[in-house]
From TrEMBL:
ATP-binding recorded as keyword: yes
Organism: Bradyrhizobium erythrophlei
Name of the protein in its database record: Amino acid/amide ABC transporter ATP-binding protein 2, HAAT family
Family: Belongs to the ABC transporter superfamily.
Domain ABC transporter: 5-235
Amino acid sequence: MSALLTVADVHIAYGKVEAVRGVSLDVGENEIVTIIGANGAGKTTLLNAIMGVLPLRGRTTFAGVDMAPLDIEDRVATGLSLVPEHRELFGTMNVEDNLELGAFRIAKATAARSLERVYTLFPRLKERRKQLAGTLSGGEQQMLAMGRALMGAPKLLMLDEPSLGLAPIIVADIFRIVDELRAAGVSVLLVEQNAQAALQIADRAYVMELGEFVLSGSAKEIAANKGVAASYLGFQLEGESAI
């Protein structure tokens, strides 16, 4: 499988404090890769740096293109998109207007097709298309944030804590849609504290602690690791003790 996104020996600092140290990862085409870890591990920082929000040291390529000279808008144009942890919607604008903001770089006819695609994925958004974004439930706002990111037809969607604060039934719906995106040819880089849900749909996983990757492998391998089970899944594997 060819790598769509490659991150090599990346370091990210806030002033003199290094928040991410020497991490490397790759995401292939039609693949879901998850990064799990505790709050403050550096997961969000890494996504923001890949998107160009924060400076980094190291090498990042996307679809064979060196991203170092690209600003955020150029990275979006190459097919990279980020749904941030706090969604960053425009609460006083309606659902459809928020969605259309995600299509600012594409032709009107293409945007219309993207809008219908988003409404097919998220029929609830179509029902509420004239409702103000600020009046939506948390789950609906997450759907809207994802829909807006999909309006530009990205090749890779980065999701930062999409399950945060949502009821289990809504989380299941969100993760079902993530799985559908992979089937439709969209790769996903998923940052998630809900490790159990993330590992159920991911192809591969990285475990991040204190700014470094301490473990990586297939999602099944990571889920079967006794230390991961005790630290992130909330249980110990039968016959084993936690690290």
